[in-house]
Structure formats: structure tokens, C-alpha cells
Protein 1
Amino acid sequence: MPESQKTAEPCVMVIFGATGDLTKRKLFPALYNLARSKFLPGNFAIVGVGRQEMTTEEFQQQMHDNLKEFAGANPDGELLQWFCSRTSYTGGDFDDDKKLFHDLKELLAEVCAKHDIPENFFYYMAIPPDLFATVAKKIVKNGLGREEDGHWRRFIFEKPFGRDLKSAKKLNADLLAILKERQIYRIDHYLGKETVQNILVFRFGNSIFEPIWNRNFVDHVQITVAEKLGVEQRGGYYDTAGALRDMIPNHLFQLVTLTAMEPPVSFEADAVRDEQAKILAAIQPFSPEDSLHCVVRGQYGPGEIDGKKVPGYRDEEKVARSSNTETYAAMKLSIDNWRWADVPFYLRTGKRMSEKHSSIIIQFKKAPFVLFRDTPVDRLRTNRIEIHIQPDEGITLHFGAKIPGPVVKLGAVDMDFNYVEHFGEQLSTGYERLLYDCMIGDATLFQRADMVEASWEIVSPILDVWSAIPARNFPNYESGSWGPHEADELLEREGRSWKNPTSETSATDLDKRKS
Ligand code: BG6
């Protein structure tokens, strides 16, 4: 949350896809948390829009039950009541602008009058991406998108924003034909995570890190977003997307740009986003050869997670039995600028991995001279800063220290900062800050059109090569491992290795992999 609390202006949040999973698990609990910490305006209301026909009372009941389940232990009964009294619903076919959008317009007028809310609306598109432009157009066509008489209209779009450069450009063009860029909020929920926001504070709010945050001191950077889960019920979507599209041009590139960007001139939205965009522009494009040599793809086979047997990707629901979709991707990025020339950024993400773990590791160069010749080489650790994003948010600094005793021997030690230990448990879904920022009109943590397109531009050549040359060795990693061995080779051939959270790659882990 921002330090100087500013209650959002009175407004109505209109959720398209109001009966879906995202609304139930994230959006309602996030709104509830905002209300509990007094960030929501008193004059606030929610209008749910879905395909299902349902009365407002039925929707309120659903919301009440969902909040009880997903808003943490013992939600406040009075607050739940307040929420329900502020919630309405209308259902129908999103393609039919006559009935649904006409009903919506009437409902919004009624809600504004009842709760004394000026006509400030923000629309949350928790719907399939192929409906984004259609729904936005119908909102505008029905007079609900134009900003007049000092009232604002904002549109939040969930990811995926396009599935390649061409589709992202088309979607941007369709939306920008009817809306202003400042009305469009392209959400990436990674920017709602505390530690991700903390990267900027850590780098630019302290004077000791920035002088060493460059090619003179940093050997390389590793960014890992590993999940234990498989594709769950999302096989239909995932089989047409894959790990690269699903995670890299959005979540992982956000982490890259925040880690690599220059200090912005201010924390105004465009000042920050300009610096992020410069990093995307400095990432070296992938030639077809690079796509084969600097990028690795993988697909999980059956295996064991937490002692339970789990099926391989090809046996998941709604996944083709001969699917060639990747569930793992790793790559080496080069950022061609003064600060980062010759400092590789290694990225990896995968499903059904050994642990749920996301982190950024800044690996520093070795000390220039080994003074401690009696110390076994494996104890001579290089320094690294680890930014833990999840599950335990925090920051660790690794360095060497003398092991007590009469001879000089070095051991590796950690200096740890853990968010929960320091600040206590914060109930957060990761969406609070993003919803709040949209309500106050701050787009800093949202993606701009040029950033989305630049990200797709980087990964599109890889997708092209992969579709032209399908993988021949899938599945190539066992569920519960740390991914395919080719990903280890990607670093090993440059004398480096991935830092896995539990151990440096163990023998059992290596055994689990198929060659
Ligand atoms: C989503 C992806 O954007 O992010 C999912 O579509 C993935 O496939 C999820 O599981 C990961 O988010 P988090 O916050 O659990 O790391």
C-alpha cells in the first residue's frame, strides 16, 4: 500500500466474468481486504456481469459464501453485510449488446443513484481474451466508456494480452481505436506482489546496492518461477499457450525489467515504464540459432510430488495425448546496454517442479584473489543477493565468514530478511494494490501498449522456431524434478549452475531426469 493513504474516489467496479474463479478467489477477497484497511471509498459498489442468469440476491449469497471461504479466517460479519448490500448482478450473452448492455446501463444508473456515487466506473475484464475487444466496444457503443463531466472510465484487462506479436498489436489497435491509453490498465499480477514492488525500494531507496548493481560486479542474474502444480483444470487453455507464452513475456519480463532498469527520474507511471521499456528494447533479439541454443523447452512426464504420484502432462484433462506444448522454458537473455553488457540473465519457469519457488538471484563475481588457500574450493562461495518472491517473501545476502577456530577456514553464511518475521502476516491476494491503483488512476504497475508489444517481439522468433521444429524428446523431465537436463547444460557450458532452493542440484534430482 502507498505510504500516504489516499482513499479512492467514489466509484463502481464492474466485473465481467463475475461468476468465474478469478472473481471468487482473488477479486472479492482483494476488495474485502481493501475495505478492511479503509482504502475503499464509502460510496462504492460492485456490479457483477456474467453469462449465467442469476438474481442479485443469488449473486450476493454466492459472494458472501465465497468471501467466507477465501477472505482469510473469520471475516468480519458487518463488513460482509456491507459488501453484499453494495453488490448487484446482471447476466446475459456478451455478444448481444441490446439486452445485456442495455440492462447494464440501467443497473449502473440505479446503483449510482442508490449509493450516491458519481459515474466513475472501472471495468474488470475477467473474461477470455478473445472477448476483450468485443466487450469493450459494446461498453463504448452503449455510452458507458466515454469520460465526460469529469467522470472517469477505466478498463482493466487480464492476461494473456495477445498470443503473439501480431495478435497483441491487433488487440492494442482495436482498444486504442475506442479508448485512450490512459484508460487502459493491462494487469500483470506479479506487480501486485510485495517483494516485486520492493525491488524498486531495495535498489533505489538504499545507497549501498546501486553502485555494485552492474557489469563491473555482477557475474550473472538468475530468475526462477517454479511451480509444483500441474495445469489443473486449465488444460484447454494451457495446451494452446505453453509455458513460454503463459509466463515469460509477462511475469518474468516484469522481474527482468525491474531488476535491470535505470533509476527513473520520478515514480510517475510513465517515468518508471519508460525505463522498463528501455530494457525491453535493449534485450538482444533471438536469431533462429539463438532460439535453438539459448532457449530450452521441456514437458513434464509422470512423477512424484509431496510423496504422491502425479500424471504426466499428456495425461492431464483436456490435453492432447501427443501434445508438444512445453510446460517448462529456460533461456539466456543478453541486455545490450552500458550497465549489463556481457552479464547474462538466465530465466526459467516450469510446472510440476520440485518446489514452488520464485526468486531473483544477483550473483556477484568472485573475489579477485584467493587468499585462503587452505579452504576447500567448494567453501569459497561467491556473494549473491537473493530476492525471494514466493512462497517466503524476503531477501538474503550470502557471503563468506571465518569458521571459528585456530586456522583460517571460510564458511558460507546468510543474512536474512523475511517479510513475515519483520512486518507480520499481511492478508493479501496480490490484487489489492492493483485494484486500488486503478481507482486512483495510477498506472505505474500496469503494462503500457509498447511494453506488451516489445515483450512479444522478443519471444515471437522463439515461438516461430519451436512451431517449425517440434520437440522430439517430450516428455523430458519428471514431475517433481528441477526440469530438463538441457537447462542445466545451458548454464554449465558457461561454467555456471542454477541455484535450486533445497540443495545445489542433488544426485537424486539428476537421476530423476530422463536423458
Ligand atoms: C498465471 C499463469 O498468470 O500465473 C498460471 O497463467 C500460473 O499458469 C500463475 O500458474 C502463477 O502465479 P503465481 O502468483 O502463483 O506465481
Protein 2
Amino acid sequence: MKTITKAALTLTAAAGFASAGFAETWDMPMAYSATNFHSATGAEFAKCVTEGTGGALTIKTHPGGSLFAGGEIKRAIQTGQVNIGERLLSGHQNENALFGFDSVPFLATSFEDSEKLWAAAKGPLTKVLEAQNLHLLYSVPWPSQGLYFKKEVNSIADMKGLKFRSYNSATARLAELSGMLPTQIEAAEISQAFATGVVDSMISSGATGYDRKMWESLTHFYDVQAWLPRNYIMANKEAWDALDDNTRNVMNGCASVAEYAGDWRSIQYAGFTLNELAKHGMKVGPAGEKLQAELKAIGEIMTKEWLEKAGPAGQAIVDAYKAN
Ligand code: PCA
């Protein structure tokens, strides 16, 4: 299959991009709702590649976890079930602690700092992914993470015993350290999980709260700015290597544009969605001093634990980030 693909693309390139007959389509699973800015950015990337290659390579996005659920996407790309897809890599930090560099509490809490941290992590992360048969194309941050509840919360003590929706091991650890009970649930499933009382609190962005209409189940959003986790668009490395240079150049160009546009969309969506949560009746604002200070203390424990797991490679990312 791969050999046929390579031959087809070589022939197509030789005959000129616009020639029909040897075109191929790559399905691109994405985990978040079609209206979300990550999905919008992915759709533009797909269009850019499809048009840029004159249809020799068509990329077809499948948002909302419709082709593969979030947790399955990375494996699907690695094993070649699909050739490309998007995943929140911190969801796999138990596989390699480096995947959790973007979920270390209070290390990088603004869009600007998230960019700097990404600049420090991109090289090492690209290598880790390559060893897993994955080629990194681009990455876009979520807006900063805040806490959602259905009551006023002023301290960690107020969180004790709550059923907490987590999305990676950092969020599960945060729950444990604050006396809550974590359950990992994909974003696509959370409206139902909250409506049926499986969980009653979570950490996420205003973006996901808006996408999933959290005001239907919850009342408070505390903008604690814990971290900005990132989504990553990755290709199966063998499929990537089998593309001809022209196609790869087009994809690299489209990926750079997507990363740039995605950053701006994220910033814009952050403001828009926090306003929307408030418009729908949620109390949106910063955490009180006591809660924020207690979260910082938990953050220090989590930072120490992450550095222990990530070892010198993790420390090198933090050092490179802090040096800039
Ligand atoms: N939304 C995703 C990950 C981080 C975010 O803001 C989620 O809640 O699953």
C-alpha cells in the first residue's frame, strides 16, 4: 500500500501536480467539536494542502472524535490506520513524561510564555515523536486552564470530595492533591457526563466550556491560569517520508500558516468564550487569594514530580525556556 502510494505520488509529481488519476486522500481525525478554533484551523490546513498540491493530496478532517475518539488518535496515526491526525499529547504523558511539558502548573501561564515554552520543547518533542513513527507538523495552544464548579469555591477544602473530570494525568493528579475524585473523560463526552452527574467539576479552558455549553450544568469558572496545554498535528512518519518533496514543501508551508493562525484564533477565542460563559449566567472571574495560593503550593509539588519523571530532558526544556 505504502509503495503504491509512493509510486503514485512520484508519477503524479512527474506529470505535474494538476494531473488527475493518482490523487490520494488522507483522513484526519480531530477530537474537538467542528466549531472549535482547533478544528477550524485544521480545516484551513486541510484546504491549504488540498489546493496547494492541486488535489494530488486531499486532506479530509473528521472533527468531534467522529473517526477516532481523542484517546485513540495517536495510536491510529502511529500504526498507519490514518496518515494524519490531531491529539492533545499531554493525554499520553504516562507514556513519556515529556508529553506533559505543557501541563506543568504555573510554568507558562500566558500565550506569550506558552510560545516561549514551545520554542524550548519543539526540538526534543519532535525527536521523541519520530522515535514513535510520528512526524510533527504543527502545534496550537488551548487558552489557559481554569476551574469549573457548580458552587462557590474559595479554598482547596471547598473542593474536597468533588467528582472531577480530568483529561490527562496532570489534571488527575491535581484532583488527587486537592481531595477530589478524578475520572478521565474526552471533551466530546463531557456535556453528557455533567448532565448525568458522573462528574461535577473540571479544569479546562473557557473554550471547551463554551463548546460544551457548561452553563447548562455548572455555575462558576475561576480563571486560575494553570497552564496552556497544546494540540499537535502529526503525520505517520512512513507516510510522510513516502511523499515527494513538492508535497512535503506544501504541507510544511501550510503547517506554518496554521500554527500562526491557530495562535491568533486561540487568543481571540479565549476572550470570546469567557464573555459567552458570563453571558449565559456563569460567574466568571479570578480565584480568591487563598484558593490561588493553595493551588500554587499544589503546583509546586506537581512541578517537582514532573521534573523527577522527565529527568534531564525535562529539566533542559525548563532551563531553555527560562533562559529566554
Ligand atoms: N480543552 C480540552 C483540553 C484543554 C482544553 O482547554 C479538554 O478539556 O479536553
Protein 3
Amino acid sequence: MDRSEQLFERAKKVIPGGVNSPVRAYMAVGGKPRFIASADKEMITDVDGHTYIDYIGSWGPMILGHNHPAIREAAMEAAGRGLSFGASCPAEVEMAELICGLVPSIEMVRMVNSGTEAVMSALRVARGFTGRNKIIKFEGCYHGHCDSMLVKAGSGVMTSGVPDSAGVPEGCAQDTLTAAYNDIESVERLFESFPGQVAAVIIEPVAANMGVVVPKEGFLEKLRSLCTAEGALLIFDEVITGFRLGFDGAQGYYGVTPDLTTFGKIIGAGMPVGAYGGRREIMEMVSPVGSVYQAGTLSGNPVAMAAGLAQLHILEMQPELYEGMNRMGGYFRENLREILGRFHAPCQVTGVGSLSCLFFTAEEVTDYRSAKTSDTAAFADYFRYMLAHGIYVAPSQFEAVFMSSVHTKEDVDRTLEVVESYYARKRA
Ligand code: HOZ
């Protein structure tokens, strides 16, 4: 048994499934999870000394790569002044000003500790603001694990084949309505069925938890108009796309303005952070100004704020890093398609900017239903080969390939070589 296996055996005795988040258990791909000892730039090293090119990047936030010296130093410097105060600190004001300055739709923002918390809070605010209860979400979109969002959810919920979670009372889910991604008529029908009752529509503007599914041209615009016409708020869950597709995330990329936005780990450069924000009149609903209660001892934590600010400041000073990273994502997708085409592999390569995905299906992937046509056994086989050859992609079909600003052309070429050798071996 190697050290990862030993740790997993120990973990299984004291942590459910041996993991602190289900996707990590490798249940969808087989094999034993790798326990990570360290990470630097685009590389990650497990406890047995195997090094991989990392395409997870802690599920998105490592935009500048792992262990960036300026981010590490900012966090360490802040830690030297105390780990948590449970009181206001200067860095959280700076962070709020920076976010409001960079994202035009956000006039006020509240820090929380995870994307799940951000979504849970934004939904409460939307309900408080509109005085309505129903929320429309999209099949296959994942908005964290708060009760009302575990309905037709993506990510680990999708791989395990469990449509909902046990322990979610019917009452919590009954106000969640589900529409089909990229299908505006499915949203219109819900508004017609529940007139004047929908508080908000929440969406990942680029769906990245059923694999990566990009919005069809005009879909987000139509969603915007529909929400405005129906008096419902539009919430963009930008936990994955925020500050990744550019400073103003998917909303800037597609030119569609939501009423509320949720962010996650990216804001903290990987530290446990989330945030939600939007128009002033909506955000002024939040306690202590308004009547929507939401709180948190660790919110605006000084160490997390310092790390997040350091990353955002670097990006602010070097916006060309986005161009490089998006270009590398495009280069990867283009060459991957070329290889798959050569081997007549029934696959789809999807993505935008630095987010990519490889689906094992002949069908074009535009929504949850088509994403589910992917042959997950074929993905698992591919995953195991990639891992064995030093390429670390998410251990599930229904996640994204994350490119950082430090992935080099050599890394991507090496990755493509491994893909090519995988198909050559299959054909042989
Ligand atoms: N929710 C993440 C995938 N979209 C998985 C997080 C983890 O396992 O760390």
C-alpha cells in the first residue's frame, strides 16, 4: 500500500467515505484518491512523491497557479497580525471596494465563507426583497449544498446518480422549480405556471458542474428580459466564472447584467471565502440595515481577505494574464478536437476561456440531458490513464478542466500527447 492508500484507509474509519467532499472519493472513476502533499505553480505532488500537471486548481481559484509568492506572503503577513478577530478589519473594506469597482453590477457586497453560503444568503435576500418564495434553477447547475438547491443538482450529486439528497425536507425543496439549461421556453412555462410567485432565477452563466456547458447565443439575454418582465431577480452564480473569465466574470463576457451575483473560493485565492453582492437597493435588505438576517464570525477573515486581495491586485495590474490563460484554454480545446477527430472518437469538447471539458458522447452537449449521455465508464478509463501519466483532471465527468495563468504551452502539449497516446493504445 502506498501512502495515499494508507491515508485513505485511515480516513475511511473516521471521515464519511474517507473524504471531506464526495467528488474526492474517486467513486465515479475507481481507484484510490491521491492525497496531496504540496502544490506549486501548475504542478501538484502527492504524498508518494508523484507529480502531476494540475487541471483542477482547487476547483478554480488558483488562477495564478499554486503557491504564488505574493499571495503566500500576503497571507503570512496577515496571519502574523492574528488569524481571526470576529470584528471588522481594513482588508474587508478594501476587498468590498475592489469588487464593487471591478464588477459594474455590484454596488454592495457581503463576505461569507463559501459559495454555498453565498448562494443560500442571496436566495434569502431575493425572497426578502420580492416577498415571493419560488426559485427557478436549472437542471445540472450546482449551487452548493444548501437544502433548496439540491434538486436536479450537478457536480457530485450528478455522478452519484442521486437526484436529490436525503435529509432535505419536502418543504425546503417545494419552492425550487427546475428548468432546462439553454431552453428559455422551459423558464417561460414555469413563470406561467406560477405567476407572481418567483423570487429569483439562479443560474451558472457558464454551467461548470455538469461538465462545462456554455450558454447558447441569446439565452442569457432572454433570461434577463424575462426576469425583468416578471419582476423576479436574476442571480448569476459566478463561483467558477467570477474573476476567471475576466474581472467582471461571465456577466462581462456575455454582456448580461444580473441583479445579484455569488462568488466563492476565487475571492480568497483558495482560502475559504465566498461573497454575494448586487444593486444597493437589494443589498440594503441585509441585516443590520434591512430585515434579512445573515451573519458569520469568520466572514471577512483578515488572512483570507489578504490572500484574495493579493491575487486580485496582481490580475488588476496584469490584465493580460487573462488573455494568456484564455488563449491557452482555446489552444487546448482546438488541439484536443483535432486529436479526437483523427481517432474518430465520439466525443465533444466544450468550454470557454480557461474552462474546458471533454464529454464522451457523440451528441452535442447543451444541457443536463445531453451531458448525461456521456459514457462515464469511458471517462473513468480515460481519467485513470491520465492520472497514471501525470495529468491530474477532476475525478468526475461532470466537472471542468481549469487552466491557470502559469500553465505553459509545454504543459498543454504534454497533456495532448498523453491524450493521443491514450487513443493510439486503444486503437492498437
Ligand atoms: N464542489 C466541487 C466540484 N464542483 C468539489 C469540491 C471538492 O471536492 O473539493
